[in-house]
Write the structure tokens for this entry.
Amino acid sequence: MKIGICGVGTVGASLISLIKKNQDEIGRKLEDEIVIHQVALRRENPQCDLTGINITNDIYEVAKNPNIDVLVELIGGTEDAKDLVLLAVKNKKHVVTANKALIAMHGSEIFSAARQMGVCVLFEAAVAGGIPIIKSIREGLVGNIISRIAGILNGTSNFILSEMASKKQPRAFDEVLKEAQKKGYAEADPSFDVNGIDAAHKIVILAMIGFGIKVQFEAVQIEGISEICLEDISLIDEFGFSLKPLAVAFRISDGISLRVYPAMIEKEKVFSKVDGVTNAVLVEGCSVGETLYVGPGAGGDATASSVISDLVHLSRGTNIPNEGFFDLNEAPTIEDSSIDTASYVRLDVKNITGVMASIASVLKKNGIGIESIIQREVSETIARIAIITSIVNEKVLDESLRQLDELLAVISAPTKIRIFKS
Amino acid sequence: MKIGICGVGTVGASLISLIKKNQDEIGRKLEDEIVIHQVALRRENPQCDLTGINITNDIYEVAKNPNIDVLVELIGGTEDAKDLVLLAVKNKKHVVTANKALIAMHGSEIFSAARQMGVCVLFEAAVAGGIPIIKSIREGLVGNIISRIAGILNGTSNFILSEMASKKQPRAFDEVLKEAQKKGYAEADPSFDVNGIDAAHKIVILAMIGFGIKVQFEAVQIEGISEICLEDISLIDEFGFSLKPLAVAFRISDGISLRVYPAMIEKEKVFSKVDGVTNAVLVEGCSVGETLYVGPGAGGDATASSVISDLVHLSRGTNIPNEGFFDLNEAPTIEDSSIDTASYVRLDVKNITGVMASIASVLKKNGIGIESIIQREVSETIARIAIITSIVNEKVLDESLRQLDELLAVISAPTKIRIFKS
């Protein structure tokens, strides 16, 4: 099988070196060979030995090269990448890509073109780096009706929340972000990571394959982690939870909910222990129940591992596994307001007699139970009250928070963080 | 695709009901149908609706039925199952089995027969129930040279060790075992589970696909968990570890080590948090690094989920994925004595002056460092000393333990528990 690689950054360099290094191992498993026939790059990568490989500066040359069976798209971005992939498909080449934004934004168009041409577009590397989560959902759990997928899909955010919660040395968001940038875990512009866009791209892809729905990036409700403060982290810990940057897709009746938000998970759960830059995906199926997949979500070698998995899949001549997924339903996305959840609510209040009674009264009036409560003195005049609510409709809770905010004793807008139940 | 199912116990009943229930979902993904053409059973299972299905009492009839494409072997045991599977293969049928003992004991013979006939024998359900671990290693991580596989593969043992370590109500081995039997987590004869045989069957299978070696059950060094006592559990916890029933396969130089033993894992590791009957498999690959797979290791529905995954795999007409694995090397298994590991050592000693000095002297003489130590008074005359050793050769450690046992002050044979580093 002859492949052409477009883009030789971190992942491309790892891919080329791994294919060379593991040629024997892959050959043993495959009874075939993966040959790098051409590489397109804008500038040379000194980490990468391209001896003996045909090099071009024109990515589109690879897409048109009649000797190439599979184009590996590693240029990133969405516009050029889309043109490139569509051109390759038009030229009857299979495509393997690590580009989550591309699939999340233009997946439907690309898959439909691929179907017409009878080729396959694979994207294991686009979600959760080296974890074979696409294959697990699409093939390993194929007998299940998937009810929920929840992922820690952004390593930068998970690193930041983990470090903020460090027992040894808790630090505020800004400080940890700077450290993450220094360590290379966060980009110079970290907004896609900490604002949840990156995780949203990924959950849209997982929802597509898990539920058989069209990619619908615009439907994701996105909340980032930049508003999280150390006070909340500490109270969340005291309540027995960890805070994780989650991306969650689930099915209720005929709708699908797609959301990205920081969520609390009970500390006893394995899922809550996934710290640092590590990724994890929890998949719930009707017959298997809960399964969890944990591993490196980024890094050249880990991502290249997933690219190779797709290449081998194609080389084995497997019937196109997305076949059944091209006829994706337009599942409606459901309103946030129709979701029930337990939440953490934090209020800073004047330290005066009767304030707890007024808060409790507002909650009671709205039918919201108090599962657990912590009160701390912030100063002589200010108290901090943190509450774990019963499971309630989010719209009802949000309306109650508005009412609480109007109480004279409440001195800052209430903070709400949802609890993820597994 | 027409299938015949032999054996309608828990898994068989789940499988039949799932195929019926999820017909539409499977059809959507597959653009084909899985039709249950015949079922062979010894006695009727009242949980199972077999209306409209051809029933026989003769399993071999299914293996010879010319209308059947795939035989699903769910009768268990090794002798009849082996005859059945070989007969099906001889009749050019693919086989899907959940039978770990069959694959662990007779895998080489079966795979070689399958290769000759050009059919495929799949066994996702044989290891770790609903976790798609076979597919993940064989396909998802195909680009990796696998260096280590470690699994919590026996739910009964994991349940017992988890309950023994329960903070609320620690209980001794025998008591928890009785509870496990009452809950249906352990068989009336639990020896295969608690003695490590079951886990050994499974690690042999994972090693076969991970390392491309022949199944070699007789090479597994097996230690069960029945000797673990509450004193050790408590000290292990104090040292900051959890105790897990592990099955470990790893590669050093040209050899493979295959072992089953209770092992300590640092509490910060996600792997250490997998409690109860849940299974988990840690896979280390050269490019992906560490990935972890967690889920239900048993149960009808979870196991049936894996059987369906294999059926869909066959139905998609995938090139036989074991192809490359039939030419399995005879990798030599290495001697335990060539393995280096840190360990926990517990000694009950006479509470007399100088005893610690004699112990330390024996260890020092053998080049064994003391990383951490806890001393507890058991009675006025007896002290308990627990030590975490440096990483040392196991043979050296075992010899040191023999020397310690000879000290006059040491009143019972030293206990050794290995630490699993990840």
Notes: The domain at 2-126 of chain A is CATH 3.40.50.720 (Rossmann fold). The longest strand of chain A covers residues 241-252. The CA atoms of residues 229 and 297 of chain A lie 25 Å apart.
